[in-house]
Every structure is written in C-alpha cells, then in structure tokens.
Amino acid sequence: MNGLSYLALLDGGGRSPPLSICGLLLYQNPILPSVTFLVLRTHYSGDILPEMDGSEVTLAGWAHEVRDLGGICFLVLRDREGFAQVTLVAKKVDKDLLERVRRLSRESVLLVRGRVKGEPKAPRGYEIIPSEIDLLNEAESPLPMDPTGKVGADLDTRLDSRFIDLRRPPVLAVFRIESEVLRSFREFFSENGFIEVCTPKVVATATEGGTALFPITYFEREAFLNQSPQLYKQMLMSAGLDRVFEIGPIFRAEEHDTRRHLNEAISIDVEVSFADEEDVMALLERAMAKAYTDVADRCQKDLSALGVDLAAPKTPFKRVTYTEALKIANEGRENEIEWGDDLDTEAERAIGSAIGEHYFMTEWPTTIKPYYTQPYEDRPEISRGFDLMHPTMELASGAQRVHDPALLVEKIRRQGLDPEGFEFYLRAFRFGMPPHAGWGLGLGRVVLTMLGLENIRDAVLFPRDRRRLVP
C-alpha cells in the first residue's frame, strides 16, 4: 500500500502486546511475535483517486481547516502530498464525532479512517466519508503564524517558527524540489563513474587563507570549521580515486548580510584527475541541465504551487572571459573596475543582464584566484579558473589545479601564507599527483535561481547567518 507507515510496539516482558490503541489498526508480526505493528496510514492524500470510490482508507495529517456550515461540516486534512476533504453530514454521522471535529483546534494531528467517495467539487475529485477520527496530538492556540498563508508574515517570523512555515505547501514545495536536485546530481555522478566521499569539517588550517574562519576549541588546540573540502579533494586525486564528489556543509565567517550569502551552506564539490578546466566545465553544464530537466519532469505539482514554469538551460553555456566581462561591466559606469580587481554585485548584474542566460566566466587574473589555481604557462598572469554564473549571481567556482609541488609552494607564499601550515596537504603532491580539475557549486543558490526566490534563506531549511543561530 502506498504511504504505509508503521509504529513498532515492543513488549520486552514477554507479555502479549495490546490488541487496540485508540481504535487504531494492529497487526501481529508473524516473525517476531513480541512486536505488533500499528498502522497509522494506508495512503497519502495524493495517492487517492476518484476511481477508488467505495475503498476504505486511513489518512494521517494535520487539521488544516474546519468549515462548519451547520448541516454539514468539512474538515480539510493536510499531509505531505496535499489536501483531503473529510465530509461530515450532520444527519448521517455520529453526533459525538461531529462535535469533536467542530471543536478541533487548527493544526492538531489526526488519523482519519473512512470511505472514498468521488466528488468533482472536492479537492482532487474525491472526499472522505469518515467512520472514525482520532486526535493524536492537539495543537495549542493561537498558532505562532498562519500556515494557510492567508495572513502574511515577514521572513524573520517565518524562520522563527520554521516548523509551521514548512507546513505551507509553497514552502514545502521548495524543499521537495531541492531533494530532487540532489537526487539528480547524485544520479549524474553515478552515471559518470564518480565515487562519493566525505571529508573532515573540523580542520587544523584554513583552506583558502584569509580571516573568514570559524575557530573552535578542539581539546587543547585551536581548530576551524572547514571553508571547503578543496584540500582533501585534491589529496584524493593523489590517492588515485580519480573522480570524486561530495555534498556537504561549508562554513565561511564572512559578515555579509545579503539575500544571497549565508555562513553555513551546502556545497556540491567535484574533483577529476587527468582533466583540465574545460573538461570539468562540460561536466558542470551537463549536470545543471540534467537537474533542471529532472525537476521539470518530476516536480510539476511543486512547480505549480510556486507558479514556476521551468525549462532547462541551453548547453553548452556561453564562455565569457574576465576581460570581456569587464568591458561590459564598465560600460556607463562612473567608477570603472580596474583589470585585476574582483567584480562587485553591480558588475555581476550588468554582465548577467547583457548575457541573459547561464554562462561561464573564464580566464580570471591569477592574483584574485586561490593559490591552488593553475596559471597558463604562456600567460602566467591569467589563471585557468572559471565561475559558473546565473544572470543574477555566481553559482560555482572551479579551475584546473596546480599539481606541481614547487609551483604550489611558491603560490602559497605569494599569498602571504606559510607552507609549513599546509604540510599535510603538500606531501600528497610530492609522491605522484596527476593533473586535475574541479569545482564547487552552492546548492542553495541553484535552488534560489532555479525557482526565482527572493532570498537564499528561502532555499535553506534552517539558515545560519551572522544574526541567526536558532532554530
């Protein structure tokens, strides 16, 4: 049965398990006689079809709304897959049951058993005629916010009561889509011979230098939350794992307070041996196109809830060099950006507006890319680094990496860092490191731009920024 849920009741004392609990259906486990399974649900609301007219079903969810019209009462039950209308006709239903429904507080947790009846005017074309409704947990009143969305709430209020906010179908839709994005990327990596890895998040040294680090006390020493799996990805290339990916958290102690920055984010990271930047750019654009296609094919209900008509971006993505992008950014700008400076938000938006689709920005100045970025041999001032850009913001950064240990030490020193602090990393380069390339992609930004959301916090279940540490 679709959506079947069980609760195992263990009887450690050898006594017979109870035969009934609140009138719920119980099944004896023939293999483990001391375990009884309590059936909480036979179907989600979305599993039921009008053609199931006359079928007995058990639904579980929340009391979204009660509409009492005197002679008839409608209970709208909400679960993860949508809504089901439970109809109680005063002349045909037990009076006690009707009164209990009329007294229900919104968002109380219920179990509803009853018969499916085809009804074109009801949500999804059916209604449930209940035989029994069990109150599993009564919700307090008033609620901290309105889960129907009829009464607006600002972002801070929504995040403070995220458990309620997520009950709203459009909010839930974002994270169902995010789940599909993750599944799509994992499918892509599996189909292309990648190995999934898990690298440390507590580290002894900065990945990229600088001050954007969260220090922590690690017994008698100082340690840091990792900014990126970069160093460990590269070490795995020396180990011969060849093609790896990781999906996990990264931490940046940057004091941004913008709609696109957080201090904890989920990064999708890739590293590939015997590859250059063009090889991994091709992988990235294919993975992105697949994610869009899979979401469009598999998440139509959630896209409709958000009012999004999604189409996969055209591949291959355009390639725009840093120098070409700088010319676009400086057109009509009062304070021109000098060659070699990083691009600010205003510049990114100007370039994105001119290009109008996903694109790669390539051939960045060596001085503004991390020390592990490979320079061109004939143009050492230019790096083999790239960024994947949406018209509104950066999504990913990547590059061909330095694999020569002498050059890597030199570049670490040029950035004012001490190579001795990177000895654990540098050792992997002295004993056979292949040429390699890779990238890191922000999951939240992919979902943010895919769905046209206003704020990165709308694409993260429990966001962490400079002001928010709970919930």
UniProtKB/TrEMBL annotation:
Where does the entry annotate site (Important for tRNA non-discrimination)?
Answer: 123
**Which Pfam families does this chain map to?**
tRNA-synt_2, tRNA_anti-codon
Residues bound to Mg(2+) 2 are 394, 397
Q: Name the top EC class.
A: ligase
Q: What does the entry's cofactor note say about binding and number?
A: Binds 3 Mg(2+) cations per subunit. The strongest magnesium site (Mg1) is bound to the beta- and gamma-phosphates of ATP and four water molecules complete its coordination sphere.
- Tell me the residue numbers annotated for binding ATP: 252-254, 260-262, 394, 442-445
- For region Aspartate, the annotated ranges are 230-233
Which reaction does this chain catalyze?
tRNA(Asx) + L-aspartate + ATP = L-aspartyl-tRNA(Asx) + AMP + diphosphate
Q: Which residues are involved in binding L-aspartate?
A: 208, 252, 397, 401
E.C. code: 6.1.1.23
The protein's required cofactors: Mg(2+)
Q: Per the database record, which ranges form the Aminoacyl-transfer RNA synthetases class-II family profile domain?
A: 175-471
Q: Which InterPro entries match?
A: Aa-tRNA-synt_II, aa-tRNA-synth_II, aa-tRNA-synth_II/BPL/LPL, Asp-tRNA_synthase_2, Asp/Asn-tRNA-synth_IIb, NA-bd_OB-fold, NA-bd_OB_tRNA
**Transmembrane parts of this sequence:** none
Q: Which GO terms describe its cellular component?
A: aminoacyl-tRNA synthetase multienzyme complex; cytosol
Cytoplasm in keyword set: yes
Please state which protein family the record places this protein in. Belongs to the class-II aminoacyl-tRNA synthetase family. Type 2 subfamily.
Protein name listed in UniProt: Aspartate--tRNA(Asp/Asn) ligase
Species of origin? Methanothrix harundinacea (strain 6Ac) (Methanosaeta harundinacea)
